[in-house]
Amino acid sequence: MRPRLKKVLDALFGDFGSRPDLRRASAARAAALCGGALPASETLPDALAPWVEKVARQAWKITDEDVAALRAAGFDEDAIFEITIAAATGAGLARYQIATRAIEAATVAPAKSGGGG
Q1: Is residue 114 in some structural domain?
Q2: I need a surface site. Which of 13, 45, 46, 115 has the fewest CB within 10 A?
Q3: Would the CA dihedral through 31, 15, 60, 65 be positive or negative?
């Protein structure tokens, strides 16, 4: 793993902020939704599942009503911000993992010639 990426993940999974448990669970769920994997022993509360999925897959569709639903479920602004950043990072990391695997596979696989000659 690249040093800068490790630094980001260490910060993401650290025990600082308002809800590190939710950050870890959100990142792991978002990564899984996007075809990647991140370790997390925490479970994502049901109230956060739709938010994390929307952030990971269709962030452009987030509305004020989505935020209001999180507030109604008891999450404050700090928690919502951290969960959102964690979910976006988890989704991005999943895409990074997929790209890395594709590059490795292309590097290992023999090049196919276009023919002709």
Answers
A1: no
A2: 115
A3: positive
Q: How many whole angstroms from its chain centre is CA 109?
A: 29
**Considering its fold, how many domains does the chain have in total?**
1
44-67: per-residue pLDDT in tens?
Answer: 999 999 999 999 999 999 999 999
SS3 track for 8-47? HHHHHHCCCCCCHHHHHHHHHHHHHHCCCCCCCCCCCCHH
Cβ neighbours for 81, distance < 8 A, ≥ 6 positions apart = none
CA distance 115 to 107: 20
Residue located via tokens 């987030």: 62
- Residue 17 gets which letter from DSSP? S
